[in-house]
Amino acid sequence: MGWWTDRCAGLGVALALAGAAAVAHAQQVVVDSFQQEQGLANLTAQCIEQDVRGALWVCTANGLFTFDGFRIRQELLPEAAGMWISVVRADSAGRVWVATGDGLFVGRSAGAGYRWDEVRSEAGGALILSSGQRLDLDAAGAAYAMDDDGVVWTIRPPQRDTDRVVAQRVPLPAYDPWPGSHDAKGAPLRVFDGALWFGCGKALCEWSDGRLHRWGEESGVPPRAWASFVRGRDGTLWARSPDLLLSLSPGTRHFESIAAPPARRWSGTVAMVQDAAGRIVTATDEGLASWDGRKWRQWTPRRNGLPETAVRALLVDAEGSVWLGTSGRGLHRWVGWGGVEHWTTADGLPSPVAWGSARDRRGRLWVATSQGLARFDAQAGRFELVHGAGGQWVGGLQADAAGNIWWREGDSVLVALEGERIVRAAFAEPDSEVDLARGGKGEIYALGNRRVHRMVAAGAAARAEPLATNPPDGRFWSVAHDGSRDWFVSSKRLLCREGSGWRPLLDEQGRPVGAHVYATFSGSRLWTVDSQGVSAYEVKDDGVARPVRRFSKEQLGGVSPMFLRADAGGRIWLGSDRGVLVHEGGRWARLDRSNGLLWNDASDFALRFDADGTAWIGTSAGLTQLLPGWQAPNPPRLRLERLEFGSRSFREPPLEAIDWSDRNLRATVATADFASGRSMRIEYRLGGGDAPWREVVGGVLQVDSLQPGWHLLEMRAAGSLGAEQAGPALQVSFEVDPPWWLSVPAKLGYAAGLAALWALSTWLTSRRARARRIELERAVAERTAALDASQQALRQLGEHNARALEEERKHVSRELHDEMGQQLAALRMEVSVLGMQVRNQKPPHAEQFDMLLDRVDRLVRSVRGLVSQLRPPALDGGLAAALDWLAEEFRRNTGIACRLEIDPAACELRPEQATMVFRIAQESLTNVRRHADASQVTLRLQRGPEGVVLSVRDNGVGFDAAVRNPGHGLLGMQERARLLRGELSVASSPGAGTTVSLRVDPLH
After folding, report:
1. What is the DSSP string of 535-547?
2. Residue 218, φ and ψ in degrees, nearest 5
3. Per-residue pLDDT tens over the stretch 51-107
4. Beta bridge partners of 536
5. Residue 136's beta-bridge partner residues?
6. Pairing of strands 311-316, 587-591
7. Is the pLDDT of residue 212 over 90?
8. Among residues 659, 533, 520, 661, which one has the least CA distance to residue 588?
9. I want to staple 206 with a disulfide (CB 3.0 to 4.6 A). Which of 213, 261, 445, 707 is the partner?
């Protein structure tokens, strides 16, 4: 009976899989591999788990490894644990449970790592779980394990770090032993809603509420060695055997049996998970398969590019990505699982370079490649070369409104009409530079040098209708539709057909909107590409394009554009040589090989959207299909993995202050965004607010010599593009203690010292102020006495000048009265005598006229002498002439030798300055004559860098200038020097003569 049952079941599986293969789609898998180069020392990944922090745990035959999104490193376990890791589970409290070939261990977070404790039975024995899926956790964090002898244990989580971790035996009644297999000695064990499920014999057993229930054939469970359990998101229980898949819906008491692809290679530990869409994903002998509730879909290394090895473990992470643990080939992440599919030459494409795609009137997919045109055969699940289309380069693939497929080969345009009849549309002058573009209403345009045609399919023929010859810009490249009209895009601008002419799209200043090859409309929003970046405009009803946003080429990473399109949802797609940039919700995101694109080099114009939202992107390695509902990746998030301050390590920001000696920070971050971890850019700033962001290479940040006080460290994942939105900031706050010399006691000591210094300084300052005040009072008294003496001297000078003026007036008066008065009286008498003689008619004698002339001459001499005394006439001839006259008069009147030295450049003084200088020289010589008792005098007038200098030096007796008070003559000279804004100095000592110097600035 058992033999026939197994044979019938096997036949059912074969028939089911044959039927499934008829409708299966081939797909090329892209995986991100992690092997020894990435830190995974052992390449057989037997199990995978993700903890609450987002890190992956990978168990191998040679140790336990963790992956934080940036790096894979080995987790050190106790020596008693050995190296063979069979199971790993992580609970909601952050504990990690690890089963090895030598025992069961639980790790609890301690500092920056884990502290591991061995789980032992009440009798002190070790729990050995050498293989299989026999360790699970319930919602409360309790662990359940089945050892190699089939004994089930429960382990309550320890409440304190010091508590021993003890396992208690579950009082199960006797049950049939699981038949086991070469890779598992005990049955698989899972906990669902407080109930234990495990394999018993060739049935399923449920332990709940202290009772054991056996589910057998009467409950729809065929006799099998059930190897895996999965609890679905909707509460469905799934079980897997090497050839069947069981499901028990919530509230039912009967299992449904589904034929499954064979998985006999590792029959005791068949990997199985449920993905984010509810599909059951399981390992098979040939690769991987998924059940969506209606049919199976399979992937194999030969047809789909899976790693050439057995899949030992599966995991769906928090982001929905599927991970594969393999035998001997390491760890792999399926890139784009559930949202992306790929089509290559393995699926029948004649070339990996896909230039575009289109759907005909029957909904069939056509793909243009560099080696011919291919069409998808749904029955065969692969592409086939379209015969009669040629095997050369195909471009410009478009479908018109009627579903006819148009493309270009060489210098010809071809079309596949109803019945797949291929017709060549001839041109009067073939143009090898023709490109095909689709208008907004399904028209097909042939754009070439100096001409534009509208392609028309009529009956069994096709023709090209000239739309325009010699267009304004010479060549159009693409067409953008704004909802009512088609705009033709050249290398410079956008133009639309208006009557028999062309009208450009203008901006607010009346200038043509710049565009280069690519432009697209999304509602009223226009997007264009030019040589410097991408621009967005708002086009209102008035037809004027108003700038809205600009993205420079640097912000977009310097990419070379390959296409620009808008989808029905308003997203903007910019193809480039480094992936596809998608703009949505005000931010750019990148689609590349790390998150779903088959190849980063997107082909020209190779983007198309289906009515259901599917997007097709042609690349240099094949065709990528983005399934409906695909979303651009969100900005990645960071989490704190470890903080190191000097020699201390933390997993969370420390609550206590960091000692000054440990103020060097090393922060290690991690991410659950495994797609971009290895290429992610990290930015950080210290202080928050407006502090600038700095970039660090890798996931480790080093900050040295932190200042004391509170710090806020922010770290975020930076976008790969300048315009790409950065991830949310991870904030870490901590405090650094000041050094002892900045501590509170030290500051109190400093304050006391400063107070003492302040008091001492105040005392010294007041003392110095008193001394200063006394000195100042003495100086003021001396200055007051000096001012009094100066005022007295000035009063005496004034009195002296008044007396001298009065004496001078007396002298002038005497001269006028005695000399000139007598001469004038005598002259009058003589003139009277001459007058009487004339009246008496007596002629005067000649002697009388001689006497009159002699009298007049004496009067003239007297007047000149008096005038010379008042102001020497020589001054009218200049300062040099006046000083020469003064020296000569001094020699003649005193007999003292007087040497004169005059620099002609020094005589360029204003008249009033010259008079003052002359009077000072005159007074100096007068003092020499009166007081010096000198035999020689030198009078020198020189021009120097500081101005004009007059010096009068004698070799007389001299005097002590520090003791002798200045006389009236010296005071008069000082007053004249002040009026000149000059400087007068007197240098003399007894027996050494006297020198009087005057310095005058000619500019004053």
Report:
1. EEEEE-TT-EEEE
2. -65, -20
3. 999 999 999 989 999 999 999 999 999 999 989 999 999 999 889 999 998 999 999
4. 527, 549
5. 144
6. unpaired
7. yes
8. 533
9. 213
Are 488 and 479 spatial neighbours (Cβ–Cβ below 8 Å)?
yes
What the block records as the tokens of 307 is: 């790693």
* Burial environment of residue 306 by CB neighbours within 10 A (0 to 12, 13 to 18, 19 or more): buried
Is the Cα dihedral 352, 354, 360, 365 positive or negative? Answer: positive
CB 384 within 8 A of CB 373: no
**781 CB-near residues (< 8 Å, 6+ apart):** none
Half-sphere exposure of 870 (CA within 13 A, CB side): 13
Report the distance separating Cα 452 and Cα 444, nearest Å.
11
Helix (H) or strand (E) segment spanning residue 824: helix 822-839
Q: Is 473 helix (H, G, I), strand (E, B) or coil?
A: coil
CA angle 107–108–109, rounded 5-degree value: 125
Distance from C-alpha of 582 to C-alpha of 578, rounded to nearest angstrom: 13
Q: How far apart are CA 119 and CA 165, in angstroms?
A: 5
Coil, strand, or helix at residue 934? coil
Report the length, in residues, of the chain: 1004
What band does 489 get if pLDDT is binned at 50, 70 and 90? very high
The string of pLDDT tens digits covering residues 772-826 is 888 888 888 877 776 776 666 566 655 555 565 556 666 666 666 566 666 676 7
In terms of Cα–Cα distance, which of 355, 525, 531 is closest to 436?
355
Dihedrals phi, psi of 983, to nearest 5 degrees: -125, 125
Spatial distance between the Cα atoms of 241 and 228, rounded to a whole number of angstroms: 7
Residue 540: CB atoms within 10 A of its CB come to 10
Cα dihedral value 909, 912, 917, 918, nearest 10: 110
The three-state (H, E, C) secondary structure of 95-108, written as one string: CEEEEECCEEEEEE
411, 445 Cβ separation under 8 angstroms: no
What is the distance between the alpha carbons of residues 552 and 562, in angstroms, rounded to a whole number?
A: 16
Q: Which of 525, 521, 570 is nearest to 547 (CA)?
A: 525
Distance CA 487, CA 854 (A): 124
pLDDT per position as a tens digit, 143-188: 999 998 889 999 988 777 777 899 999 999 999 988 888 888 888 9
| % of residues, the chain, pLDDT over 90 | 47
Tokens representing 603 are 């082909």
**The pairing of beta strand 665-670 with beta strand 639-645:** antiparallel
**φ/ψ (deg, to 5) at 659:** -65, 150
Strand partners, 686: 713
421-458 in b/e form (b: 16+ CB < 10 A) is ebbebebeeebeebbbbbbeeebbbbbbeebbbebebe
Instruction: Give the CA angle between residues 321, 323, 324 to the nearest 5°.
Output: 155
Amino acid residing at 291: W
Residue 407 has pLDDT above 70, yes or no: yes
C-alpha pair distances (Å), 205 with each of 51, 152, 176, 196: 29, 13, 10, 8
Q: In sequence order, what are the residues at sequence separation of 6 or more whose Cβ sits closer than 8 angstroms to the Cβ of residue 260? A: 13, 240, 241, 243, 244, 245, 282, 284, 289, 291, 296
User: What gap in Å lies between CA 609 and CA 567, rounded to an integer?
Assistant: 7
Which residue is it, tokens 């779903």?
A: 596
**Cβ atoms 361, 355 nearer than 8 A:** no
For the chain, the C-alpha Rg in angstroms (whole number) is 56
pLDDT at 579: 92
Asked whether the beta carbons of 320 and 275 are under 8 A apart, the reply is yes
pLDDT class for 135, splitting at 50, 70, 90?
Answer: very high
Strand arrangement, sheet containing 983-988: 897-902, 936-944, 947-954, 994-1000, 983-988
CA distances, 562 to each of 295, 510, 576, 597 (Å): 38, 29, 5, 15
Give, rounded to a whole angstrom, the gap between the first and last alpha carbons of the chain. Answer: 136
Token pair belonging to 57: 């745990």
